[in-house]
Write a structure and sequence with these properties.
Layout (H helix, E strand, L loop, with lengths): L1 H18 L9 H11 L3 E6 L4 H10 L3 H10 L1 E6 L5 H8 L6 E5 L5 E6 L4 H12 L5 H10 L4 H13 L3 H12 L4 H4 L2 H10 L6 H8 L1 H7 L2 H21 L3 H12 L4 H17 L3 H15 L4 H14 L3 H17 L3 H14 L2 H17 L5 H10 L1
Parallel strand pairs: 1-2
Antiparallel strand pairs: 1-3, 3-4
Length: about 400
């Protein structure tokens, strides 16, 4: 009897929870749109990935809130889709969804009205739903207004801001380029044009960004030096990072000269990091050797972890004795910054590669001593010592 009562209470609890949760309808995207037409409501779609912690938190804490549930169930046909499974894979490509969660609002014709990304609190999420219902903030209206007069800065900025909020930076770039094409160089330096450049422009080789580089003081006067520098660093990152992640050397070395010509300490350091990453990813060890030998003392000398990683790459992939001696010096510098068992082992193996068994044994023994003091495994050090003995 007790078990039956418990089961009944669990069922009731589940029903009550469902009543206070967003009602995600079942069915394909086509079926969801048909349902939207039938009930004459726009569609709210949650696009997520099963591994996404932010998605799971939104599902558990926001979608189950009674205020959110009441608002979204009343105003939208709600649906969700795992973008890394089944039809979600094609949908992810078609809608260019790059981050999770992404929330997209459609009208009954299937046009995107509004789009947001990320994790929200209850009040914020309800406000975003209200924004999606506001014609003035919908993509369809913003597009019509912008195309009616592409030289209108206010309309351009509103459209750009909507795209940025949606995580659609390439679309924001297109709008910025169309608007900025209506501006002469003499007109570019203004507070409004800076907002459009800062929020929309993505092309590092564009006329407008090159003009910013040549007139940084003038743009700093209508914004601030910090904002101008931040935009410059952002442009280098945005233009080089995707090619590095894709190991696309053609795209990387096409954009790199524009970044290298900036000659800003922060961007030079960023380029160095991207150089060694893409060369390591593509296993171009000759170029990797050249890049590191020229730039490690300048850009990595205070970074113990990076010095260790570069020394390890030399240990595993480079045989030239002179190069290995450079790597030994970098690993020793890493130890100066931070004591590390891993670095002792790297130094031992680097010295072995150069034929200096005495130094190799010394570093292995020092590493073993450190490991024993923390009761760590000494297997790697022991192997090197036994190999030498």
């Amino acid at each position: 009897m007790r078990n039956k009562i418990l089961a009944f209470l669990l069922i009731i609890s589940g029903v009550m929870q469902a009543q206070h949760s967003v009602n995600f309808r079942e069915g394909s995207a086509t079926e969801i749109m048909q349902l939207a037409k039938k009930e004459n409501k726009p569609v709210f779609y949650m696009f997520y990935a099963s591994w996404c912690a932010h998605c799971n938190k939104m599902k558990a804490e926001v979608m189950t809130d009674s205020l959110v549930a009441d608002f979204y169930n009343k105003n939208f046909i709600c649906a969700k889709q795992d973008m890394e499974a089944g039809p979600g894979i094609e949908l992810r490509q078609r809608l260019n969804v790059k981050t999770y969660p992404t929330f997209v609002f459609f009208n009954t014709a299937g046009e995107v009205l509004y789009r947001i990304t990320g994790e929200f609190k209850v009040a914020e999420f309800i406000l975003e739903g209200q924004n999606a219902l506001d014609p003035k903030k919908q993509f369809t209206n913003l597009k019509t207004q912008f195309l009616a007069d592409v030289s209108n800065a206010d309309n351009a900025l509103a459209y750009i801001s909507a795209f940025r909020k949606a995580g659609m930076d390439s679309n924001a770039n297109d709008v910025a380029k169309k608007y900025l094409a209506t501006q002469t160089e003499a007109q570019l330096v203004s507070a409004m044009n800076w907002k459009i450049i800062a929020n929309g422009l993505q092309d590092i080789d564009s006329r407008e960004f090159q003009y910013v580089l040549k007139n940084q003081k003038e743009f700093a006067a209508v914004s601030s030096p910090i904002r101008v520098e931040k935009k410059i660093v952002y442009m280098v990152n945005t233009n080089l990072s995707p090619a590095v992640e894709a190991s696309d050397t053609i795209a990387y070395f096409k954009k790199r000269p524009f970044a290298a010509a900036i000659h800003l300490a922060k961007t030079d350091s960023l380029i160095f990091n991207y150089d060694i990453r893409i060369l390591e990813n593509t296993k171009n060890w000759k170029a990797f050797r050249k890049a590191t030998s020229e730039s490690v003392p300048k850009y990595a000398w205070k970074n113990a972890a990076q010095l260790k990683e570069i020394a390890m790459a030399y240990m595993n992939n480079i045989t030239d004795n002179k190069a290995l001696k450079d790597a030994i010096a970098w690993a020793e510098r890493s130890l100066e910054l931070k004591d590390s068992y891993d670095v002792y082992i790297i130094l031992a193996r680097l010295n072995l590669k150069t034929g200096n068994k005495s130094a190799a044994k010394d570093w292995a023994e020092k590493g073993k001593k450190l490991a024993l003091s923390y009761q760590w495994d000494t297997k790697q050090a022991d192997e090197i010592i036994n190999q030498i003995n």
